[in-house]
Amino acid sequence: MRIKKQLLKFIILSSFLLGQVDLLNSRFKFTPGISYDLSIQSPKDYLGYDLGTEYTLYADVMSYLRNLAQESDRVSIHSYGKTHEKRALEYLVITSSSQRGRLEEIRKNNLRLTDPRTINNRVADKIIQENPGVYWLSYNVHGNEASSTEAVMQVAYRLAAGQDRETRAIIDNSVVILVPCVNPDGRDRYVYWYKSAQSQVTNADEFDYEHDEPWPGGRTNHYWFDLNRDWVWLVHPESQGRIAAYQHWMPQIHVDYHEMGFNRNYFTMPGTTPRNLMLPDPYEALSDTFGLANIAAFDKHKVMYYTREGFDFFYPGYGSSYPSVMGAIGMLVEQGGHSRGGRAVKTDDGYTLTLRQRIFDHYQTSFATLSAAVRNRQTLNQYFHDSFQEKTNKGNAAAYIFPDNTHNYLYDVMNMLMEHGIEIHQAKTDFNVIKAHNYKDGIANRHEFKKGDFVIFTDQPRHLFINTVLQREMEIEDSIMYDMATWSAPLAYNLEAYWTENKLRMGTTRLIEKLNYPSGLTKKNAPYAYVINWHQRNAPKALAMLWNKGYRVRSARKEFNNGIRDYPRGTLVILIGRNQEKQKSVQNDMEIIASTAGVEIEAFETGRMNSGIDFGSGNMVPLKQSKVGLMVDSPFNSYTAGQLWFLLDKDTELGISRIRAARIKQMDLKKYNVLIFPGTRGELDSTIVKKIKQWVREGGTLVATESSAEFFGEKSGLTKVKTVSLPKIESDTIPASAYTRYEDRADSSGLKRIPGTALLGIVDNSNPLAFGVPETLYTLKQNTKALEPNANLQTVGYYHKNPKKIKVSGYISIENQKLLSGKVFAAVQPIGQGKVVFLVDNTQYRMFWVGPSRLVQNAVMLVPSM
What we know:
Blueprint: H1 2-18, H2 43-47, H3 58-71, E1 75-82, E2 88-94, H4 97-100, H5 103-112, H6 121-130, E3 133-139, H7 147-161, H8 165-173, E4 174-179, H9 184-197, H10 237-249, E5 253-261, E6 266-267, H11 283-301, E7 305-306, E8 329-337, E9 344-346, E10 352-354, H12 355-375, H13 377-387, E11 399-402, H14 410-419, E12 425-427, E13 431-438, E14 444-449, E15 454-457, H15 463-470, H16 489-492, E16 498-500, E17 508-510, E18 520-521, E19 529-532, H17 539-548, E20 554-556, E21 560-561, E22 566-567, E23 572-575, H18 586-597, E24 600-604, E25 611-612, E26 620-622, E27 628-632, H19 638-651, E28 657-660, E29 674-677, H20 686-697, E30 701-705, H21 707-715, H22 745-752, E31 757-763, E32 776-781, E33 794-799, E34 807-809, H23 814-820, E35 824-831, E36 834-839, H24 854-861
Parallel strand pairs: 3-4, 3-5, 5-8, 6-7, 18-24, 27-28, 27-29, 29-30, 30-36
Antiparallel strand pairs: 1-2, 2-4, 9-10, 11-15, 11-16, 12-15, 12-17, 13-14, 13-16, 19-23, 19-24, 20-23, 20-26, 21-22, 21-25, 31-32, 31-33, 31-34, 33-35, 35-36
């Protein structure tokens, strides 16, 4: 009887979950009653199905939108690049046919508002009063938040064909820019998988296979990066092309369309703390104007929503925050659904959330936002213009100064800033600054700068972006934040940099052309050797190219001097006598490598040095070509894995193999001499650890990063390296935290977190792991993990021993400063003939916090041979 009851319950539950779901509830019709131009096809007519009954492949979305541009004189389509997987990146420009003939005039007038130095008040007022607004909506930056790209087809269709008063008001008073899909590679990864997983009968069970996409998921782009963190840093082609287009138009509003867990209700503006306090004062009220417009639409349709909690816009690299530091009202909306939403899913209160509703909700906020923008067009134009004026500059710095350096990431940063329209100057002569603050401790001293050093003055229109991205530390209202507490570019790229509050008086020239790292071959013939200084930014790429061409390469374990200059540890030496078979091609190969990699290669006529080691020294170590395996798939963190993959594959161009974790048990590991373990959300079983330990003892180099570094300490038994733990309180007294009120517990735990903070690291750069790394390093800390130093462990990087000096920028509690001071974040542990490299912190975070990234390149390319 009991079995029958359980079976009956199962049948009832199955019927509840698997019964046919109404995917097209009449409640979610797209603005019924309005008329359309019948010569223009709707999404349903073109695709052959109703939106919400299927997911649409990116190629089919763009095919429909291109057809829309052909059928409607309101629409044009524009290319802005290609993804890593070569999918076309395109955006739509939609406006009335009467305005299309003067579109370039509208755009140029809009751009005139961004430079108050070149326009008088009378002309500015006329543009503010008369110029149509430029309003930009971006959809589907996270590929598996797929409903918004479905929604954009209906939004574009109505703007192209709608005959109603609201649509007419929008297209007559604005230029609307729609990006249908910011991340096509990720979207197609999700949609192709979902189509292969869906059943004939719609299944609303959240645990069904079609609601559980596999690793790495469709959220990220080809290299498993979150493109919604890359608006400032421009690491990826999707971002590079989008920002070029954004700068071409410079909109007054920008909305970023997202999804979140299916049990969540719709989020709309405004957000919560911490806020970027550099923003103009009217920002909050204006963002709330749009939130209220969205709410009015949702109240009408009985859609659930919330505001003012959960999401902050402190970090400037979001699609909701970058526009705000470019004079616009940047905004975020989040729809419940995400990858687990499928076509329909049961929520925790028994409600069936459909894909159609998710599309409908984004459609509603798209039009509510555009209509609100049109109603507030002049106010938005005025705010936009004011944002670029000196009166809204809240920063204290008069200028940021960067001493010229061709060996680090300085040129990358200068080029990135110019892509955002930042004016950069170079000094014509040497100059002194009485109070130049350094980034290490913020202390101001007199400093001498050289001719050619870079200066960024803040009395230029884009001061808001400059101060937000370059200042050492932002004012933080709240230690609980959605992303990170610091992103200061000089710290992230580990640059020597200064700022001053004093006005500078010296001659400068404006930097116009993109900077290139010095490259080339110093002599046409090298009777003895070619030499590559390892401190050069692109030296690892040059080594990868040398290996690829079959050269035998050595690396200097100690410094040397040829009578002209010093050469640091790690410097690469290609001996002609050890590459005899390359005699005919060596000069041409060196020229190609120098040009392609972006390095200087010097020809030497002798192996005898003026001081230091000679080229025949035992400290001139032959480098074994690295055969690298990068662990991927569950339980490894796809973000960390993607960043390591990008660093080695794209930036270094070193071919690596990505190995699924499940394969390790069956594999012969001897074909690799380096294995990289990214951060992990789980642990490996003991049989795998035993196999890896034997491989290391026989000469393998294991590179353990982030949480894997903790695991491969004493926890796994592979080594005896201890990790830092919180001190035990030897007391019978009940701690005060035991009585923390329920409502305060989130805030209390937030105070103990380290939400992406720059700590000052001290580096032993005599160790091969740190060749080419300065003696001090800004490392990004996101947790309290670290290693305990011990005599048998080669400590390569440790946090400053003084708790009062450990924090450079961001937030960290006093307790955590004391906990981490003097503890180890980079180390090498020899085991048998092999080594374990520990890198506790992410060394290439999002490929913008790349100051420590040489540690990984060294771990992979130099350490195995040293």
